[in-house]
Specification:
The chain has about 400 residues and is mainly alpha-helical. The chain has two domains: about 1-5 and about 60-215, Glycosyltransferase, CATH 1.50.10.20; about 265-385, no CATH class. The protein contains 13 helices and six strands. It has helices at about 1-20, 30-50, 60-70, 80-95, 110-125, 130-145, 170-180, 195-215, 265-275, 285-295, 310-325, 340-345, 370-385; strands at about 160, 170, 250, 255-260, 325-330, 335. The strands form three sheets. Strands 1-2 form a two-stranded antiparallel ribbon. The protein has a two-stranded antiparallel sheet with strand order 3-4. The longest helix has 20 residues, at about 30-50. The protein is globular and about 60 Å long. About 50% of the residues are buried.
Amino acid sequence: MKRLVVMLGVTCCTVLGLMAQGQGASPLDDATRGKAEESIGRGVAFLLRKQGEDGSWLQHPAMTSLVCTGLVKSPTGSTPAIDAAVNRGLDFVVKHAQSDGSIWNKQTEEYPNYSTAISVIALITKNRPQDLEIIKRARAFLLDSQFADAAKDGASLGGIGYGKKLRPDLSNTQWALEALYLTDHLDREPFSSDPVKAKKADLAWGRAIEFLSACQNLKETNKATWVVSDPDNKGGFVYLPGESKAGEVKKEDDDGAGLRSYGSMTYAGLKSMVYAKVNRDDPRVKGALEWIQRHFTFAENPGMGSAGHYYYLHTCAKALAAYGDETLTDAAGKPHSWRAEFVGQVLGMQKPDGSWANENGRWMESVPELSTAYTVLSLEAVVNSAPAAAAK
């Protein structure tokens, strides 16, 4: 087990190192970093006050896992109070591990793949020795949930949905891919000597790239009839092949309706392509980044306004940190040090009690525990992956 802990530490350091090697590095200055860490601390304090007697947040394993991941990643470091809260929370989570490997509340019958993926992320982040077998079984469940039949799945190939038999979407898929990315080592040497498992993981990533392509508004790589190439939508992503939560647009050739790209799914697509090791020069990665540059903002979820704003912030922080560039140039040619701008936007949205909440209640974002967990994780992605400021 010591070997596992050491190897995970090396892996995490390597990932953070790669994330910090962005082009045109413009690290957070000490003052901005300090403000971000203070804000995270206030958010953490709010979340600690909201933990239930049973160790959970809102009596849901996914919600509890989101919070626990944020507590573990806090840049202010571990404290006895945080450690105790995390262990109580994860004890609640593992009680929901099912015989098929999934981790979810069967009484409510809600979101088995979402819940399993988010729980895996929390469990591997904390990396308690007693949770290793649960993590492995949950990873296997997620792999088995992928649509994998090239002959019959069509544009759904490679995606993951709400359950094994329910149509896949990019939101479920991006969470599952993050969980699989963080646990990929478990199916490889030295953690596994079974070449079949490693091959299965490789095939899953290849299929995932197919699904990501099928969700992208890019005619170069996606021949679906809904794809459009106007500047507002080209390169962006939609919720699933044939459906966008941002609605439809008139196609440029006046031949029916196309689908509107939007922010949260475009960042989900970019992040997932980075995890899948798609080359930065690939037209799909370049297309996504160009869409992001044309719609650069943290003030809203582009294409959706205030709906899903905190999910958007959480996803774009992780995506930009994983992509690695420190500066983004918008459509007007203006360069942005995105980390500092992100911190400024998010700190201005924090409430006096340390929480965040969306007045737009779509996707439960009016629930402060959820939006606060999203935002704490967002700020941690920004701060923890930032290059160190140059010595004065």
